[in-house]
Amino acid sequence: FERSKRMVIHVSTNGEFIPLKWNWPETWISVPAVFKDNFSSIYDFEVRNDDVFIVTFPKSGTTWLQEATWLLLNKLNYEEAKRRHLLERSVFMDISTLYGEQTNKGDSVAKAAELKSPRCIKSHLPAHLLPRQIWQKKVKLIYCARNPKDVVLSYGHFLRGKGAYNGSMEEFIDDFLNAETLYSPYWIHVYTMWQMRAEPNIFFTTYEEMKQNLRGVVERLNEFLEQPPLSEAQMEKLLNHLSFESMKANQQVNPTEVIKKSGRPGADFQFMRRGIVGSYKDELSVRNQQRINEWSEQYLNKFNIKMNDIF
Ligand code: A3P
User: Fold this and answer.
1) Can you spell out the DSSP letters for 118-155?
2) Where does the Sulfotransferase domain lie (predicted)?
């Protein structure tokens, strides 16, 4: 995103709907300027009682959790999952509000609206900018957070790889820390949802937890979605299906080819890149790791929590 095209949006919530214990007087987000014209189509989106929203800061494990959620919600319908791309089964509702007509792929909010129930809708927007009926109707919302050092790397590789960011990784890290990358600021995004994690309509997990205990997350998710318990054979099959290797090879969930067709990515672009926890350890300089740690500390001190409380 070129800086000239970005803007910062401030939204006052007055705590009207969102069950946040710490009431932010206002929040803001880095988005392209065109979002301002399209924002109300999301904010005023007509929510159905059985909708499920999957919300993340980008590169935090959205696709992984989307596939798990869609399958659990759809009685493990692998046939349909094989026939239709995840991007169609679980629409990313923000996309056309961010790019306007540049996407050339129709109106993503309308596409989300047209999904058959129970709809499984993806968004990267922070709590305050999501459809406000989510908070009024208290529909299910699934959130996944990922540690910021892996997020910045995954995000930087993704945007640079697909030709959407022209600077170096170092410049990208600067932008991320300055909350100038799309959907930033990161910590407000994560913290507001973490704070609401005990609400009955919120499911909170982390990429790290999914890596450590996918079975446990799937069991908890299945219960949250009010679906019948899985047999051992069903669980085994699902865990297999959700493994990094299997999802990377699965063209109906891995968007690499779709992105290659629509954008300007280099030949070596891979959406499913490493799929591990701690890729920063061998990809980020010690200095950059320290910078991100110090930046995180500032937020965490303000929130009066520790990194370990979330991750
Ligand atoms: P890396 O770039 O670190 O490999 P999102 O879906 O939110 O855009 O997140 C993408 C990140 O999740 C990428 O991280 C991708 O490899 C990882 N990912 C996707 N599916 C995964 C899976 N089944 N297991 C582990 N990681 C997965």
Assistant:
1) SPEEEE---GGGS-THHHHHT-EEEEEE--HHHHHHHH
2) 50-303
The full length of the chain comes to: 311
Question: What residues does each domain of the chain span?
Answer: 3-310
Task: Name 92's bridge partners.
Answer: 122
Atom in ligand 1 nearest the alpha carbon of residue 150:
3
pLDDT tens-digit series, residues 3-55 = 445 566 665 555 556 666 555 555 678 888 788 788 889 999 999 999 999 99
Structure tokens at 190: 């994560």
Instruction: Specify the CATH number of the domain 3-310.
Output: 3.40.50.300
Ligand 1 centroid–CA 61 distance in Å is 5
What is the complex's ipTM, to 2 decimals? 0.99
Query: Is the overall model pTM greater than 0.90, yes or no?
Result: yes
Q: List, for residues 286-304, the tens digit of each pLDDT value.
A: 999 999 999 999 999 998 9
19 residue type, one letter: P
- Whether the CB-CB separation of 67 and 242 falls below 8 Å is answered with yes
